[in-house]
Write a structure and sequence with these properties.
With 275 residues, the protein is α/β, with parallel strands linked by helices. It has helices at residues 13-21, 82-87, 108-117, 134-144, 173-191, 201-206, 226-229, 262-272; strands at residues 51-52, 69-73, 93-99, 103-104, 122-127, 155-157, 196-199, 216-220, 237-245, 253-258. 44% of the residues are buried.
Length: 275
């Protein structure tokens, strides 16, 4: 994640109480905090069998301490062997679907079908283009991403695009948040799910994205735990490497963790997956 289309280089009240009881008072709470619903269905979780081409020497709590791992993919990952990935610890996946108002990831539809067929909970993400209005971008995403039972909430990927050949604009924070709200509201109205917002440290801080109401965050932090980079801001998903080695995925992969336990993941899915 974190690349514009032409270049690679360029996702709870009980959660905090549970984590605090386990001696982890500094862990962030999940944004959509709610008590775990009774009679949660069993959710099959496979342990991660991943490597890393350039591992970071984590201090404090490492990604390995989290129970639920997953990936995000785009055309740059090539064809994914989803049954193999699922068997080796991919418990969720976010797939690039669209960018701006005129680009569709050519592998999105195939990945969507194959990942769901392999039993991987999947969601779709949209890469934000700073030179198009929110309404156009929302319509483009809705045009290409189906409403499907069990789908994870859609994701808005917002970051700076200094290497884009067509748009390197850096709008004012107030404008960015206003446009983000419009996009999130439009998708929520269509899918019945409040989208997740993905961001990077500089973009998140500069634009004060934590001011977005009712929004869960998926945050990138490859050199430290998010609590050290995002000043204790809440998060639901953490992208901890872009150099992961995942069976079934060609080359290097983005790997992510969910903020809670296995039981909390089951509760989160029950609340957030498309009915």
């Amino acid at each position: 994640m974190g690349q514009s289309w032409p270049m690679r280089g360029v996702l709870f009240l009980c959660v905090m109480l549970c984590l605090a009881a386990c001696g982890r008072p500094n862990e962030p709470r999940l944004a959509a905090s709610a008590a775990q619903a009774p009679n949660q269905p069993a959710v099959a979780i496979t342990a991660p069998n991943f490597g890393d081409a350039d591992p970071h020497p984590w201090q404090g709590r490492s990604p390995a301490a989290y129970a639920v791992h997953g990936i995000d993919t785009s055309r740059w990952n090539g064809a994914v062997d989803w049954p193999t990935a699922r068997a080796n610890g991919v418990n969720f996946a976010f797939l690039k679907a669209t960018e701006g108002g005129d680009l569709v990831d050519p592998d999105f539809a195939a990945n969507w079908r194959a990942a769901r067929g392999a039993g991987v909970p999947v969601g779709a993400y949209h890469f934000w283009y700073h030179c198009r209005p929110a309404a156009q971008q929302a319509r483009w995403f809705i045009r290409h991403v189906p409403r499907a039972a069990g789908a994870l909430p859609p994701v808005l990927d917002m970051e700076w695009t200094p290497f884009s050949p067509t748009c390197t604009e850096r709008p004012a924070p107030e404008m960015i948040r206003r446009e983000a709200r419009m996009f999130l509201d439009a998708l929520e109205a269509h899918y019945g799910q409040r989208p997740i917002l993905y961001s990077t440290p500089d973009f998140f801080e500069t634009n004060e994205m934590w001011r977005l109401e009712r929004t869960e965050f998926w945050l990138r932090s490859t050199a430290a735990h998010p609590r050290d980079i995002y000043a204790g801001r809440h998060w639901s998903f953490w992208q901890y490497t872009g150099t992961g080695l995942v069976p079934g995925v060609q080359g290097k992969a983005d790997i992510n963790v969910f903020a809670g336990s296995r039981a909390e993941w089951a509760a989160w899915l029950t609340r957030n997956a498309h009915p």
